[in-house]
Amino acid sequence: MSQAKVPTWVNIALIPVLNIMLAFFVSGLVILAIGENPIEAAGYLIYGAFGYDEGIGYTLYYATNLIFTGLAVSVAFKGGLFNIGGEGQAYIGGLGVGLICLSLDHTMPLYVIAPLAVIGAAVFGAAWAYIPAYLQARRGSHIVITTIMFNFIASSLMVYLIVNWLKEDGRMAPNSRTFEESAWLPYLHELLSPIGIEIGDSPLNLAFIWALLCCVFVWGLIWHTRWGYQLRTLGTNPTAARYAGIDTAKVTIWAMLISGGLAGFVGLNEIMGVNHNLLLNFTAGYGFAGIAVALMGRNHPIGIILAAILFGALYQGGAELAFEIPTITPEIVVVIQGLVILFSGALEHMFKDRIEGFFIRRAVA
Amino acid sequence: ATEPAVVYDQAGKFDKSFNEGVYNGVKEYTAETGIQVREFEPKNEAQVEQGLRRLAKRGYSPIVTVGFNMTSAVEKVAKDFPEINFTIIDGVIDLPNVQSVVFKEYEGSFLVGALAAMASKTNTVSFVGGMDIPLIRKFACGYEQGVKYQSSNATVLQNMTGSTGAAFNDPTKGSELAKSQFSKGSDVVFAAAGGTGIGVYQAAKDEGKLAIGVDSNQNHVQPGTMLTSMVKRVDQAAYKTYKDAAAGTWKPGLVVLGLSDGGVDWALDDNNASLITADMKAKMKDIRAKIISGEIKVHDYMSDNTCNY
Amino acid sequence: MPYAIELRDISKRFGAVQANKDICLQVPAGTIHGIIGENGAGKSTLMSIIYGFYEADTGHIEVDGKRVDIRSSQDAINAGIGMVHQHFMLVENFSVLENVILGAEGGAVLKNGIGAARIELQRLAHEYSLDIDVDAIVEELPVGLQQRVEILKALYRGARILILDEPTGVLTPQEADHLFRILKALKDQGVTVLLITHKLREIMASTDNVSVMRQGEMVAHRETAHTSKEDLAELMVGKKVRLTVDKDEAQPSEVLLSAQNLSQFDSQGVKRLKNVSLELRAGEILGIAGVSGNGQSELLNVLSGITSMDEGEIHFAGQVITAKAPKDAAQMRDLKMAHVPEDRHKMGLVTGFEAYEAAVLGYHNSPVYNGKILMNRKVMLDECNERMAAWDVRPPNPHLKTANFSGGNQQKIVIAREVEQNPEVLLIGQPTRGVDIGAIENIHEQIVKLRDSGKAILLVSVELDEIMALSDRIIVMFDGAVVGELDAKDADERTLGLMMANAYNEEQEGVSA
Amino acid sequence: MFETLILMLDATMRVSTPLIFAALAGLYSERAGIVDIGLEGKILGSAFAAAAAAAVFGSAWIGLCFGILASVGLAMIHGFACITHRGDHIVSGVAINTIVAGLTVTLSMHWFGMGGQTPALVGDARFLDITFPFADAMESVPIIGQIYSNLLSGHNILVYLAFIMVPVTYWVIYKTRFGLRLRAVGENPHAVDTAGISVSFIRYRALIICGILCGLAGAYLSTAHNAGFLKDMSAGKGYMALAALIFGKWRPVPVLLACLLFGFLDAVAVRMQGVVIPGIGEVPVQAIEVLPYVLTVLLLAGFIGKAIGPKAIGRPYVKERA
Ligand SMILES: Nc1ncnc2c1ncn2[C@@H]1O[C@H](COP(=O)(O)OP(=O)(O)OP(=O)(O)O)[C@@H](O)[C@H]1O
Ligand SMILES: Nc1ncnc2c1ncn2[C@@H]1O[C@H](COP(=O)(O)OP(=O)(O)OP(=O)(O)O)[C@@H](O)[C@H]1O
Ligand SMILES: [Mg+2]
Ligand SMILES: [Mg+2]
Which of B255, C15, C50, C299 has the fewest CB atoms lying closer than 10 Å? Predict the structure, then answer.
């Protein structure tokens, strides 16, 4: 009688899809409520996101950020930690990237700067996650609250640094000088055109490839290494972790360091890939969106890639939609994002219990 | 036929101030010619360039872009689309297909400064700036000169709301700043702070003080409280771009608009008529003429990044 | 005369588990009625249904001959039913008074209710010798007094029917005796008592009638006077119970592990382990007897390295382990100490893992399971398959989630994991808790086999029968300290029971005086 | 100097008001065991609803009602997720914050077409300041008069209400049946359940109160302190209130003090832009802005006392053996 009673596809496909459908359905109602046609809106959205080269490029560019933050949330989550600090870690990660670029762009070529920038992003992002992690592991301060606080602290710190130290004299906008081209991550359309592949101009850059590599890295790390085994043990049963002789404080801290480092890579895409200078608020909520991505992607790299592309499409399609129907603001995407978090996160039991109950009853009968 | 377009900055076209000024110009043009202007309001940095490209690709021209924040994006896109005409307001780009429109805000600010000094009973007036950038210091400096010209022993209190873009959209802080200035004796406040100004004017109204609007004519925002507005005719900049383009007379290059060509001015209308005495009106007329004639030299903060006049 | 309480065909199902099935029960007023059954037999579920905590799927309840509709605990309270739960239901940082009035405050504002409650509690204390400081904070009270608060809560609400779910599990025999005296007094006042336990001694000593549950069903009703322990035991497990294990005389040799003066304090600063010393020899099983909560768990945790001691030292495998030079659980494993924890769900397994992953928990760093960077899944799977076959784990599917194995099979996975590491010392806590009789025999055999191969085993169990059947030597723990040691040959239930109550010496003195 | 202090404190009262409402809201919710990082969203939602309704109906009171309705509605979504469906409290809070951030802009764009703002509120559509009797006359009396007329007098009714809510909350939490049950439910819901009280019902009621108080906070922002709604106008106040709640260790009076401290820092920060303090130099405003968050982190780390919250907080209640 003790067989697995609920088929796997129910948990990894049926329930997530149902949750997303519900989120979209409610979003449709919102669009209807503001007097627009949801079907037409969906049409613009899908066309804008996937209908042409450039649109796809933008979709993937947004997805790049979301893959990083989604991975960040999920690595911490696997260890039972809720990292809401992705936003701040990404911000500070970007600072690391910016500082490296600003100090080396006159003297070094890209192939020297890029690896250093990767390290800079990871180290700075990780450093920002370290204090909440340390406090959680050694002093029992709740990581959710401390990471929220650290988002605010990061934001103030960045304003201070950029406005007082990094801003170019005489410049209006609070951002640093533009980097030399030796510190620009190449755009994919530039990389691909010499080998005969022409894709439309878009901000999609090398950071996207790095994001995919990070997925592979995270997948191997969590499911195929000892450390991942320890992390998952800690995340599902902390008492068993202590029983197994796992140094829970150390695993906690490392999980957050990796999480923060991953979030920091948003800086690669934004600072080095697209903006080419250090500016304020480039994280634009990607840290929070990462929570939705991780939840929807079931904390698995494949799922995260899919969810990130879905959200990337919403961002890009949403911009297109707002462009075509000015009464719909791009904020509708934020609403959809929130609804996804609500239905696939907070209300996960709503369908899950019923559907699983249905399959269990069927199995028992 | 031209297909005109406009890209606002991230504050959006209803910021009651700078963007809204441009929007008014757009409305005027549409009302007059019946030609719809394609509008775009980007929500983040990436969308600025994306929106510009999309407009350029679809052949919209001229494209009016609003604010110094767009300088680098416009520069990139204008290079890639040499056949499309761009006008950038408040920014300077040296390209053959870009017109750069900048204003002598210091002249207008001087005028309203003088008026503030005339209206003040406490001989203390104040200034609330938005984001602390040279452009806003330019307003402050002109204002201060105007006040001192009228009343050399007057006190001018100055505060900036913040050092980020958010400082242009923080009415709560604006109102707190204004209240603190009032408590130090100010009875006329000039806000060059975008959306933050709304809070400043509200505070002035609540405490029975006078306020001076900026960019658009904001006299209607709090009638009876608004002493005047330092109008910066961004609406005209936009309107003229479209008109000229339609007539084929649009030209690239730098356009500097000041008092003499009506680019900046002080606003007098029904909403503030009762606050302006005939005497004040006369004095203003006189000062205005003197600035235009060059008899009064107003120092431009941005010429040397100081306010030594 | 109608019954105080009567159950008719009560059934309750949790998902796939049929916890109660067509239960009928009649309890005459003013009696103490015992209900016995193995772990998981459905006793607590049934009582929770009477108390309105769960709603029955079918069936109904009559109180004093009248059918009552119990949908919530409030309904049960209104019907005069009170319950003392297996796990206390107290707000720990509230005072006794606040706990007692919670839910019976007597008005929207607390002031009046508190005054009235003070007076009523004084009366109850007087009547049933249930003295307590009503302003004390509950978490500062000893367990016995916390239980008293629970009883007071029920009586304060005017309970005429009192349910106690395994009340003595946390009590020393003396405290238990005191409790039974209180129950007797209540009975004399006409209160009907339902007493859940799986300790046959208590049933025989204090009840009027007894009902037996097995696998969710009520299988027998007896008058206590007309039954025996053996009879009840057989009814409980459904077949003749073999309470002994076949084993040869132990051949203890050298000391493998010795502990001296181990002490440990909990986070509140209470000393949970008091100067415990023991020696463990190769080829013997050392049993630790005691009422649960008397330091056994702490001892296991300290010996296995999960927590470190505050005082004392352990000598093991040539190492000296002290508070200053601690070794964690992983290091102890490296020294070839294995540990089957008392609670497999909370500690021994990760229920979300597939079986083959759970089967290496604690040994996951071993080079056997690891390549240079990645873990070697194939090795893990192969080994798991082998073990499942050898230990008859059902179903033998290494990819099944651990949670989906039954309790007994989960336990086999844990014990196999620890035993197959071929340890020098095996610490084993509650090896057969919640495991059915067939599996118990198997597990006992394996433990003896390990002993016979010259290993040392430390066995902790609250089941006296198990201790006596397996151990070669027995240590008794009380209140964190070792209070006695005897050879298994000299052990009997009475002696051990007295020792567990720390009353043995007193009695000996009494005899000699 | 004294005058400056009075004016600072006066500003502190204004700035603290939404924090006090929101932190007390959080207190009810968290004392009942429900973590509420959705304070932010509820404030924002209420600010929007209140401003929109006040603009349409021209009455601040009607605005307040709508603000409260919106906020209570959001609280009920939180309850539906966390109480009825045993969802994760944090995830639900994040969801609500996100939805509201998007929805307020979308709806105000649709209704008012002003780029995510509501029209500026005038006259009765706003809560106006109340001047105490003889305030003008008293102003010249040193100290007492100044305190009376400059600090105590001249706020709008919601400011006074916020301060009154503190003793009221104290009384409710510690002196009433509801308060006893509320605290019990946050410590050990099983105990409450077996005492014959519905855990869900208490938690829902706590969330309704939480919603009402957040509604007051939001309405204050848009119809009293300001004159209209602006996108993202809550600007982290919900999180700051959460920090104050922790800083005040979930007790009404210390929570009030924490709110006042944070409000005071805010009032100082407003006046610190570019101010040079002799001997120290120019203190970056960011350093002052960031203090509440830093203080909270230090408290959580146990460096300045210890923050121990209700025991059952954040854990969904399921009828299972512990
Ligand atoms: N809330 C619940 N959800 C799911 N299953 C449950 C629940 N409560 C009990 N069960 C299951 O119902 C069965 C009977 O459990 P119950 O607690 O009534 O046993 P018991 O006789 O009291 O055991 P013990 O002696 O260990 O206390 C067990 O299989 C248990 O796992
Ligand atoms: N924590 C749990 N989570 C999910 N399912 C469980 C859990 N505990 C038990 N089960 C399911 O309930 C079934 C019954 O478990 P239980 O432990 O009562 O089995 P049992 O009949 O007592 O078997 P055994 O004699 O081996 O102990 C198991 O087969 C398992 O599928
Ligand atoms: Mg039980
Ligand atoms: Mg079992």
Answer: C15
Q: Is the pLDDT of residue C426 over 60?
A: yes
Assess whether pLDDT exceeds 90 at residue C291. Answer: no
- Chain B: list its partners (3+ Cβ pairs within 8 Å): A, D
Nearest Cα residue in chain B from D121: B202
Q: Where are the domains of chain A?
A: 11-34+338-365, 58-308
Read off the tokens for B41. 């309001």
Are D55 and D119 within 8 A, CB to CB? yes
Tokens in use for C144? 């016995």
CB contact under 8 A, C375 and A243: no
DSSP string, C265-281: E-TTS-EEEEEEEEEEE
Q: Which residue has the tokens 């059952």?
A: D312
Q: Is B177 within 8 Å of D270 when comparing Cβ atoms?
A: yes
DSSP C475-505: EEEETTEEEEEEEGGG--HHHHHHHHTT-HH
- Residue B198 is encoded by which pair of tokens? 């709304």
Q: Name the 3-class secondary structure at C345.
A: helix
Is A29 or D120 the better-scoring residue by pLDDT? A29
Q: How confident is the model at residue C386 (pLDDT cuts 50, 70, 90)?
A: very high
| Mutational test site, ligand 2, from C21, C404, C412, max ligand atoms within 8 Å of CB | C404
How many CA atoms lie less than 13 Å away from C490 in the CB half-sphere?
8
Task: Report the C-alpha gap between C400 and C68 in whole angstroms.
Answer: 44
Closest residue, chain C, to A358 (C-alpha): C15
CATH of domain A58-308: 1.10.3470
Q: What is the pLDDT of residues C187-222, one digit of tens each?
A: 999 999 999 987 777 888 899 999 999 888 999 999
Identify the residue whose tokens are 């990139």: B76
Is residue A268 within 8 A of residue A101, CB to CB? The reply is no
Nearest by Cα to B178 from B134, B208, B152, B153: B208
Write the ipTM.
0.86
A156 CA distance to ligand 1 centroid (A)?
53
Domains of chain C (ranges, CATH numbers): 5-237 (3.40.50.300), 255-348+422-512 (3.40.50.300)
Predicted pLDDT of residue D322: 36
pLDDT in tens, C342-371: 888 889 999 889 999 999 999 999 999 999
Q: Quickly state the pLDDT bin for B168 (edges 50, 70, 90).
A: confident
Touching A: B residues 19-78, CB under 8 Å: 39-41, 43-47, 49-51, 53-54, 68-69, 72
pTM, two decimals, is 0.88
Residues with CB under 6 A from ligand 1: C 14, 17, 19, 37, 39-45, 86, 198; D 319-320
- pLDDT at position C15: 73
Contact D105, B12 (CB under 8 A): no
Six token digits for residue C223? 């008058």
- Could you tell me where the DSSP H helices lie in chain D? 2-31, 39-57, 60-79, 89-112, 135-138, 144-146, 157-175, 177-187, 189-194, 199-220, 237-247, 252-272, 285-289, 291-300
Residue D250 CA to residue A86 CA, distance in Å, equals 27
State which residues have CB under 5 angstroms from ligand 4, the bound ion.
C 407, 434
**A202 closest CA partner among A10, A95, A362, A52:** A52
**Cα(C44) to centroid(ligand 1), Å:** 7
- Residue of B202, B205, B219 to mutate for D, most D C-beta atoms under 10 A: B202
Q: Which residue has the higher pLDDT, D146 or B300?
A: B300
Cβ neighbours of C487 (radius 10 Å): 10
Using DSSP bridges, classify how beta strands D129-130 and C481-487 pair: parallel, antiparallel or unpaired: unpaired
pLDDT over threshold 50, residue C512: no
Residues of A in contact with C365 (CB under 8 A): 226
